[in-house]
Amino acid sequence: MITVTDLRKVYRQGARDVVALDGVSMSVPKGSIHGIIGHSGAGKSTLVRCLTLLDRPTSGTVTIDGRELTNVKDAEIRQARRRIGMVFQHANLMDSRTAAANVAHPLELVGTPRREIQARVTELLALVGLADFADAYPAQLSGGQKQRVGIARALAAHPDVLLCDEPTSALDPRTTDEILDLIAELTRRLELTVLIITHEMNVVKRICDSVSLLEAGRVVEHGPLQEVASDLGGRLAKALIPLPATPPIPGGPVVELLMVGEHATEPVLSGLTRRFDTDVNVLAGSVETLAGTRFGRLRVQLDQSTDMDAVRTYLAAQGVAVEVAA
């Protein structure tokens, strides 16, 4: 549904070039939710501007449902943008307009008949749980309600793609979960394809099907959530299933174990203890459910005399990934 291929954006600043995007490529299937995560300065804002054609990329392509958007003529940009609904960090509502009027605005801009606008606004406000707030002004709404209006407005023109730029970073944790659950529900109900730009790993954990890690304008890790979380040594895996830091402990080797799916509920450590007649000291552990799959991660210390090659072979047979931490 969404294919980004070798996208580059270079800005000219004085006598030097600043590379904001350096060959970004990704593919997002129709009906899925993809998270793009990265720290400030990673290139997330530039990527948003290129995806929405607010900035023309220096090179590369953006294709949505088979249509390449990066080479549309200037006169066709507004029509092309209608395929992408935009949800902003702070909702960006017009204070002088009611909730209903804010949702109606993009339809008014393209000359939609008034009766159609009224019907669409009523439908969308009900869809986001604000049927009784049509006449409320932004100042009368909570942060979560404003974001719901913003989502309804983004859906007004029947877009194929919903692009959410830090949609929950200004909200409290409970409201964040409610908004994310709403986005997930709308994705299923309306068969949307959703891109969420965020710096919060909890957003990715809660609703994303796949994820890309953006750093210095490049995608350094990318894939379905279950796949990246299964890479024991990957940076995304460590962020998705974090373990607290533990101080160095004299003694035997420290290893990290990753168990996925049914293996996450099996008594791996007791089996290891019996098989090798060894003590296992659990230093840290974490369990997460990601994209419907259960993941367990452990940091343990084994006896000094432990045969690590034999341990690796045994654990691999049990479906457990092993990485020596120290």
UniProtKB/TrEMBL annotation:
GO terms for molecular function: ATP binding; ATP hydrolysis activity. The keyword Secreted does not apply. GO terms for cellular component: plasma membrane. It comes from the Bacteria. Signal peptide: none annotated. Keywords: Amino-acid transport, ATP-binding, Cell membrane, Membrane, Nucleotide-binding, Translocase, Transport. CDD domains: ABC_MetN_methionine_transporter. One of its GO terms (biological process) is amino acid transport. InterPro entries: AAA+_ATPase (IPR003593), ABC_transporter-like_ATP-bd (IPR003439), ABC_transporter-like_CS (IPR017871), ACT-like_dom_sf (IPR045865), MetN_ABC (IPR041701), MetN_ABC_transporter-like (IPR050086), NIL_domain (IPR018449), P-loop_NTPase (IPR027417). Homodimer. Forms a membrane-associated complex with FtsX. Belongs to the ABC transporter superfamily. Part of the ABC transporter FtsEX involved in cellular division. Has ATPase activity. This is ATP-binding cassette domain-containing protein.
